[in-house]
From TrEMBL:
HAMAP family: DeoC_type1
Catalytic residues of the enzyme: D107 (proton donor/acceptor), K170 (schiff-base intermediate with acetaldehyde), K200 (proton donor/acceptor)
Gene3D superfamilies in alphabetical order: Aldolase class I (3.20.20.70)
Name of the protein this chain belongs to: Deoxyribose-phosphate aldolase
Metabolic or biological pathway: Carbohydrate degradation; 2-deoxy-D-ribose 1-phosphate degradation; D-glyceraldehyde 3-phosphate and acetaldehyde from 2-deoxy-alpha-D-ribose 1-phosphate: step 2/2
One Gene Ontology cellular component: cytoplasm
Organism this protein belongs to: Gulosibacter chungangensis
SUPFAM superfamilies noted in UniProt: Aldolase
Protein family (similarity comment): Belongs to the DeoC/FbaB aldolase family. DeoC type 1 subfamily.
Pfam families cross-referenced by the UniProt entry: DeoC
InterPro entries in UniProt: Aldolase_TIM, DeoC, DeoC/FbaB/LacD_aldolase, DeoC_typeI
């Protein structure tokens, strides 16, 4: 491992994540407190935990969504999660509602079965439908489940994402039986999308060494539920 980032530097790569099915508002509130404490770039939670005014900062549920101050964690949520087997229009509605409720970033799941059936053009159409529903500056990340794909399919998924206007490609939901991020998949995704599109490694990033390996391979964001533990392993300076 040649790359070494400080605790503060690494924190800015992290989407501090809680997508457990049994998560409560109290759990999400603690996640947000931790994210602020560790300096994470964003938090990533389930869409029914929005708006953050209700779940995280004790505001009235009918109030306007809470807007983080400069330097506080951004808000990310998931769409079509975790299977991707949702109608494109429903994904678009889910994404649009999430943005209206305060999400700054949307992590959508593609239908990998559609890709494996040889229809990358339909995957592109699916992504484009969500993109139209949440125009810039909202960040759109596309989850491709790289561990379940061949190298050729990873390339197709990345190309479809870029063509549809995605800002990031993301390895995994963390829920697929095939597994999460690998260094090899991240490197291939980076090679395919080039330097101007983000690559998010998610699923199985549990140590400082894992994080450094993913960043060295080309990751520009890391999705993890163990961010606090990983940062404790990082050098302070």
């Amino acid at each position: 491992m040649s790359l070494k980032l400080t605790r503060a530097e690494l924190a800015q790569y992290i989407d501090h994540t809680l997508l457990a099915t049994n998560a409560t508002n109290e759990d999400v509130a603690e996640l947000y407190r931790e994210a602020r404490e560790i300096g994470a770039y964003a938090v990533c939670v389930s869409p029914n935990m929005l708006p953050i005014g209700a779940a995280w900062v004790g505001l009235d549920p009918d109030s306007e969504p809470y807007e983080p101050a400069e330097g506080e964690p951004q808000v990310a949520t998931v769409v079509g999660f975790p299977s991707g087997k949702h109608h494109s229009n429903l994904k678009a509605v889910e994404a649009s509602r999430a943005v209206a409720e305060g999400a700054h970033e949307i992590d959508m799941v593609i239908d990998i079965g559609m890709l494996k059936a040889g229809h990358p053009e339909l995957v592109e159409k699916d992504i484009a439908t969500v993109r139209r529903a949440i125009p810039s500056p909202t960040i759109l990340k596309v989850i491709i489940e790289s561990a379940a794909l061949t190298d050729a399919e990873i390339i197709q998924a990345c190309e479809a994402s870029v063509a549809a206007g995605a800002d990031f490609v993301k390895t995994s939901t963390g829920f697929h039986a095939a597994g999460g991020a690998t260094v090899e998949a991240v490197a291939l995704m980076r090679k395919t999308v080039g330097p101007d599109i983000g690559v998010k490694a998610s699923g199985g990033v549990r140590t400082y060494e894992d994080a450094m390996a993913m960043i060295e391979a080309g990751a520009s964001r890391l999705g993890m539920s163990s961010g606090k533990k990983v940062l404790a392993e990082a050098p302070e300076a």
